[in-house]
Amino acid sequence: MFNQQIPPLEINTGELDLNIDPTQHLSQDIKAENEIKEDLRHLVPEHKISLDQVLQYAMEAKAYAQSQIKKGSTWLQNNSLSDEYFDFLKKGIGEYSGGVRDEMREQFCQDILEEDRIVAYYESTICVSSKYSLGNCEEMAFQALDYILNNVHFNINAEVYWLGNGDHAFLVINRDQCSNPRDPKTWGAAAVFCDPWADKVFNAKEYLLNVKNFYRYGNINAINGFNPSKHFFEQKDRFSVHYLRSKRSASNLKASFFEKSKHLINMLNHFKAKISKEEKRLKEKYDHNAEKILIISYQIKLINQSFININKITNKFIHKEYKNDYRFAKSQLMEGLELLNKEAVFAMKFSKRDQSILFEHKGENIKTEIMKFFGIKSKTYSHLKDFTSKIDSVAAKLF
User: Fold this and answer.
1) Residues 198 and 335 occupy one common structural domain
2) Domain stops at, among 247, 263, 283
3) Domain range for residue 145?
4) Sign (positive or negative) of CA dihedral 304, 306, 309, 310
5) How far is CA 144 from the centre of its chain?
6) Closest Cα partner for 119 from 131, 134, 107?
7) Do 243 and 253 lie in a common domain?
8) What does the pLDDT look like over 170-195, one tens digit per residue?
9) Are 206 and 192 in contact (CB under 8 A)?
10) Is 283 among the domain residues?
11) How far apart, in whole angstroms, are the C-alpha atoms of residue 220 and residue 289?
12) 373 or 218, which is more confident
């Protein structure tokens, strides 16, 4: 439906066919992604780039990470701070509870558009640490990775590494992908460590002299040297330029957006079927101009119009060109989801006045009076109340 012009609006049954592969309509973003990948194939392989060039990238990435994050709780210079300010930084990071790391987790959990949870975690870390300019070695390594991802267009990989049996994180750039991930001696002559937290950039072969482990005793931040008999390098390849470039895309976001639209259509169809059934029951019992029937008929018209509106909103955001700018695409599509959500909830919500009319007993006969006396709910109440009371929570699960 998204490859055709929408016809003039008119109220109809609102039944939409959304069983379409949305990616066939994402040509602009997919083309942009493929062009990047094609360009990368013709560039020099990672381990053939000169050491000087990689060191330059690492210096730029380090400077960028340091510009994004101004304070942290593990920094050695904190040892000269008062205990009160040191504790303030630890709380700000979230070493106890709360702080930026809680906000990162919250944003990660609320990211309903990005299906890949590695990408969602990465994006929440970048967003929140940049917002507050707070972070420790891991956040700084992510920021350095973000610089390489967005500013270095050579086919060069960069990976976040952690120090196993220790406490530190840093970025490794241009490791030979056929090497042993745990042995820097095999990584190639032009592999480089980028450690914004320690303010260091160095050739991977110099790791024994330069890699440090963080620890704390009391309220003192400290470091000691890399111990080959204890420490090891732990690489999680999904926190890398190669993985993020393969998964983090505007076209994937559009496909996720499309699925959310389908969920809303299904929810609206379910609600429409429920109230249509109640409308039919009431028409068999009362005059067609009865107030309850008129209210439900009007709500069905709202739902039909909502089908059209959701179609228009989805069409607009699916067709929009984002030039494979992931963060711009995400911000725009999130706005689209808000519009979709408001549209659907509006169509499924009876006003308080209408609810009171729908759910009250009608008629003056003895049976009705007995039901009122014993507090027995009307049939319309029984048929609709459960669903109408859950509309907000049902929508919240989708969005």
Assistant:
1) no
2) 247
3) 44-247
4) negative
5) 20
6) 107
7) no
8) 999 999 999 999 999 999 999 999 99
9) no
10) yes
11) 79
12) 218
